Amino acid sequence: MILKIRFPKARVQKLNIELDKFAFERLAASFGFFNPEFIKSIHRAEKDYTAGRVTKIRSLRDLK
Fold this sequence. Notes:
Layout: E1 4-6, E2 16-18, H1 21-31, H2 36-51
Antiparallel strand pairs: 1-2
């Protein structure tokens, strides 16, 4: 798999990565995004969001 990574400027905090569709599918499969349990969890999260059971946080400290 070939990834093209570009750093636009030395002080910029962003990173550009280019993937073709085959490389993206391999990356997604290695992360488990095609796993049926992961897809079910996405559907559950969408239902929770539409039902209003989601709380926005400003920081990870809010999770304590």
